[in-house]
TrEMBL record:
Coiled coil: none
Subcellular location: Membrane
UniProt organism field: Labrus bergylta
Signal recorded as keyword: yes
Gene Ontology, cellular component aspect: membrane
Protein's UniProt name: Uncharacterized LOC109995858
Keyword set includes NAD: no
Length: 316
């Protein structure tokens, strides 16, 4: 599972009709799109109805329109303002996007360029494998509303008021939240809920990336934060303490004598302190405690999983 990452959007590089956009752009990402979701590359100029519009990705034409005449691509590939719509984003969609706008007489109104990077789907919620899980719908559903749920762009449930068109009644709760049963890894992905009034007016599109965690996780630590793996035995001042991660020694102390690690790596009671947790810190943690004479006081084991900070369902 991938950790959550910050989304950074920088200003579009705008080239006027008097300058050239042929210079190779920096490799730095200017916008970030989440893998598996939808994304819009904005056109930073007001488009007139008769304008000619062309979009390129990495120098290759992917959309072209003269006024209302479609030459390349589909009507739904762009919004009313000429912005480019990307659906079910994949890594192959990364690259340099260029928009060229001309008047109906062929005069340039500008060339606009942006470097787009695709990020691995960030886990926003976590479901335990083998259990049941509910993806909440963050809008109050009216009795006559139309509801559609998608997973990775594919329709999995659709209802118009009380009329079920796709899926089963038990697949959703009364408030429109999606019920998942006996969760498996195949259920991971981007979930989208679309809500419309009975007249077809949109009430919102809500998106969430779900990751499925192995059922054997005993503790969960938030990525980027601090976490303590507790030692479930009272430690005497002369005891010998050793901590292992995935079988490898990471801390060892005999009484007050430090052999491996740092004093601040453990608390006064011998619990292991983890700072700025990363995915690499996942695994099986074992604590071994011995008396000063080498007599075992116990071996204690815990399976730790690292997860991104869970957040509420977001408006797409």
């Amino acid at each position: 599972m991938k950790m959550a990452a910050a989304f950074i959007v920088s200003a579009l590089l705008i080239c006027s009709s008097f300058t050239s956009c042929t210079e190779t752009p920096d490799a730095d990402c200017e916008q970030f799109a989440p893998a598996g979701g939808n994304f819009t590359v904005l056109l930073p100029v007001k488009l007139d109805a008769t304008d000619r519009l062309m979009w390129k990705r990495n120098g290759e034409n992917i959309f072209r329109r003269h006024g209302e005449l479609m030459i390349l691509g589909k009507v739904e590939d762009v919004s009313e303002d000429g912005s480019l719509r990307l659906r079910q984003v994949t890594k192959e969609m990364e690259g340099t996007y260029e928009a060229e706008v001309y008047t109906q007489d062929g005069k340039s109104r500008g060339m606009f360029q942006n470097v787009l990077c695709v990020q691995d789907a960030d886990c926003e919620q976590f479901a335990p494998a083998g259990g049941d899980f509910t993806l909440h719908l963050p809008v109050k559903l009216d009795a006559t509303d139309r509801l559609m749920w998608k997973r990775n762009g594919e329709n999995i449930l659709r209802s118009h008021g009380e009329l079920m068109i796709l899926g089963k009644v038990e697949d959703v709760s009364e408030d429109g939240s999606l019920r998942l049963r006996q969760v498996t890894k195949k259920m991971e992905g981007t979930y989208e809920a679309e809500v419309y009034t009975r007249d077809g007016i949109s009430r919102g599109t809500f998106q969430n990336v779900l990751c499925v965690q192995d059922a054997d996780c005993e503790q969960f630590a938030p990525a980027g934060g601090d976490f303590t793996v507790l030692l479930p035995v009272k430690l005497d001042a002369t005891d010998r303490l050793m901590w292992k991660r995935n079988g490898e020694n990471i801390f060892r102390r005999h009484g007050e004598l430090m052999i491996l690690g740092k004093v601040e790596d453990v608390s006064e009671d011998g619990s292991l302190r983890l700072r700025q947790v990363t995915k690499k810190m996942e695994g099986t943690y074992e604590a071994e405690v011995y008396t000063r004479d080498g007599i075992s006081r116990g071996t204690f084991q815990n399976v730790l999983c690292v997860q991104g900070e869970s957040i509420e369902l977001q408006v797409a």
